[in-house]
Amino acid sequence: MSRAAWLRRYAALIRNAWLVDLQYRASIVLWLLWGVTEPAVALGIWWTIAGEGQVAGYARADFARYFFALMLVNQLTIAWDSWYLDGWIREGELNFRLARPLHPAHEAVAENIAYKARTAGMILVVWLVVSLVWPAVRLPLAPARWALTAAAVLLAGAMRFFISFTTGLLAFWTTRATAIMELHAGVSLFLSGRLAPLALLPPAVAGAAALSWFPYMLAFPVELLTGAAQGTAVVKGFAGQLVWLGVWIAAYHVTWTRGVRRYGAVGG
Amino acid sequence: MPPAITADRLSKTFKVKVRDPGLKGALQALLKPRYRDVHAVRDVTFGIEPGEIVAFLGPNGAGKTTTLKMLAGLLYPTSGRVTVAGFAPWGGGPAFKRRIALVLGNRQQLVWDLPPEETFQLNRAIYDIAESDYRERLAELVALLELEDLLDKPVRQLSLGERMKCELAAALLHHPPILFLDEPTLGLDVTAQEAIRRFLTQYRDRHGATVLLTSHYMQDVTALASRVLIINRGRLLYDGALAALVARIAHTKRIELMLADGVTAEQLAAFGDVKEFRFPNAVLEVPREEAAATSARLLAQLPVADLSIEDPPIEDVIRVAFARGVAEDEA
Questions:
Q1: What torsion do the CA atoms of A141, A147, A149, A155 make, to the nearest 10 degrees?
Q2: CATH class name, domain B251-310
């Protein structure tokens, strides 16, 4: 396959994803509200706690920047694939996908691109509008930092995709694949920096988080964007992302190869 | 020319978790799971020549769909060998998948919320079909399947029959030489069933495609297939022409009569087993080898307006074939 043919495939997949989205306009608004509400609530809590002082070095303006960056980075890296895959496998919708000359992961990647371009685009607009009236959430226009953040977001997005896809593949063995993903999401709420910057975690929890992939999914690219990550923290962050991405790609590979072998291809 | 499809001692065994009913059973299954082997397909061997239309027959759970899925590369065989279009399906990769189409009667690839043409366009990109080829093939499929009014309607608004027609079009845009169809007429009304059958025959005649289909509808089989494979409990019981199966299994023939006045059921009983009698129509069953002689006697001795000799209904023949297979299986 030529590169142009691959581009045509991705363009067609993304186009179809958007066309389906347009059929469900209300749900787009709801997902957008959800994407904004969670960080907004967390910000509200920390705003109150910080008062006029600081919490672990974070003043109100720092919290505001952190959660606005989080809102954007989360939408750019989030992956829903485990839910789709679970359905495909358990309800036999993987069948026709396996019979096509295109690995089902490509469809999932294209869906991710379509979703992220749409939702993150809208969040970016929300952020720009808010920053016009609220200077606290403005970020310095430093091209090098934005470029580094883009790379970190790409790695985090890839890692979250492989985590979600691999967990979804567990549906080859269990009917509880989505429950496992829910558990993962629950833990990530604390360890990836969704509820609070990692600097605010108790030392023992922060130590545990540092040994896992969670901080590299979200907290690292967010801190890169806000400027909280500097010097060796940047190098360590990228190294952690690369290592954990490698681990999850390997896990995906093993799970996929073994899973399709034991696939029961249920239903017609 | 080598066969389009060969299966050599093909077997598939599933491990199924055994669970007793109730909460205790659920707990036991969790703590100490027990499994049993289900032999879905056992030592199935056959070959299909290019351009043949072959029907897979069998009751629910016989192993038809499992075999089809192994041939299409979806399921990994437990043992045995398969070749489809020169490939081992499991390791064939994209080159193999471009040579097959898989249509599953109760699972669709059409995008539910969009008009069928969007799925066609997607498949055009996935299979890397040139624009001119795509236009030409789509025009052919639209004409053969009468799709012109359906292309821009969302799939969710189409009837079951319309969806199946579009499903076939989506599956055939890349012109695969081998078609695997699982229950392509499932749930369709008689007109839609006939349209699908007519299309499949035309498509095979035009493009020389090899077709392997499963169906519960005998009309599909009698109208389409030159050959049937009968499978039950995972074993292949019969491989050959439908007419030969009837001759082998059916030891009787049906004589269908239209009678003139004054004939009673008692009179008819002297000629054979009276299966139906509703004046003026009657059906007699007689031993196969006596059918011609009995017909001659009927015409000579009774006022017969019309007479025809038929094989027993194909459903009855198949039922006997399944029953014999089961009997052998249990012996």
A1: 170
A2: alpha beta
Q: How far apart are CA B154 and CA B156, in angstroms?
A: 5
**Which residue, among B107, B152, B175, would best test binding to A if mutated, counting the most A CBs under 10 Å from its CB?**
B107
A1 in B contact zone (CB under 8 Å): yes
Which of A2, A25, A95 should be substituted to probe chain B, the one whose Cβ sees the most B Cβ atoms within 10 Å? A95
Angle at A107 between CA A238 and CA A75, to 5 degrees: 45
Nearest residue in B to A1, CA atom: B128
Residue A115 lies in a domain: yes
Cα three-residue angle B21-B24-B26, rounded to 5 degrees = 65
Give residue A88's domain range: 3-261
Question: Is residue A268 included in any domain, yes or no?
Answer: no
Q: What is the pTM of this model?
A: 0.86
Greatest Cα-to-Cα distance within chain B, rounded to the nearest angstrom: 78
Domain spans of chain B?
A: 49-77+93-246, 251-310
Residues of A whose CB is below 8 A from B102: 95-96, 99
Q: What pLDDT, on the 0 to 100 scale, is given for residue A69?
A: 92
Average pLDDT along chain B, 331 residues, taken 10 residues at a time: 91 85 80 86 96 89 90 93 94 93 86 94 96 95 92 93 92 96 86 89 92 85 89 90 82 89 85 89 91 92 90 78 56 33
Domain count, chain A: 1
CATH code assigned to B49-77+93-246: 3.40.50.300
- Is A53 part of any domain? yes
Give domain status of residue A227, yes or no.
yes
Q: What is the dihedral of CA A95, A98, A99, A101, to 10 degrees?
A: 160
Q: Interface pTM (ipTM) of the complex?
A: 0.88
